[in-house]
Write a structure and sequence with these properties.
Layout: E1 17-23, E2 31-42, E3 44-46, E4 49-51, E5 62-70, E6 79-86, E7 89-97, E8 101-111, E9 120-130
Length: 132
């Protein structure tokens, strides 16, 4: 959209341009990895139009990781374990899909600093879903 100061944090810009790639190599008939990498909050400008916020450090826009799972890669996995990197901090998670219940748990870090020195706020998210 159009705004006078493209770097103003108070500006609400719903545009988030993302690029990414993933590959799922099978290590055996019942075990595979999913490897992914990407960039988000990509800034671009066209004349007076700005999309995304500029001046975000590169380490805060890059994310990637590896997920190991059992089963067919084309169907939901009954068990998966993942580890990665997002916005400058390590991430990890585990997911189990039982016949009628799904359980997920993950941990990730967010930068809560007011200056250029990163300050991590470690967060944990858990979820239980009924499958019906």
């Amino acid at each position: 959209g159009k705004f006078s100061n493209p770097d103003a944090i108070s500006t609400v810009d719903p545009t988030d341009i993302r690029f990414g790639v993933s590959i799922t190599p099978r290590l055996s008939r019942k075990f595979a990895l999913r490897i992914a990498a990407g960039i988000h909050h990509y800034h671009t400008a066209s004349g007076e139009n700005n999309y995304g916020l500029s001046n975000i450090p590169v380490l805060k826009t890059v994310h990637g990781g590896v997920e190991a799972f059992i089963g067919n890669p084309l169907t939901p996995s009954p068990l998966s374990i993942s580890a990665g990197y997002s916005q400058g901090f390590a991430t990890w998670g585990i997911s189990a899909d039982l016949s009628f219940l799904s359980i997920d748990f993950t941990s990730f870090g967010r930068d809560i600093s007011d200056d250029s020195t990163p300050k991590e706020d470690r967060r944990y998210v858990g979820g239980i879903s009924l499958n019906f």
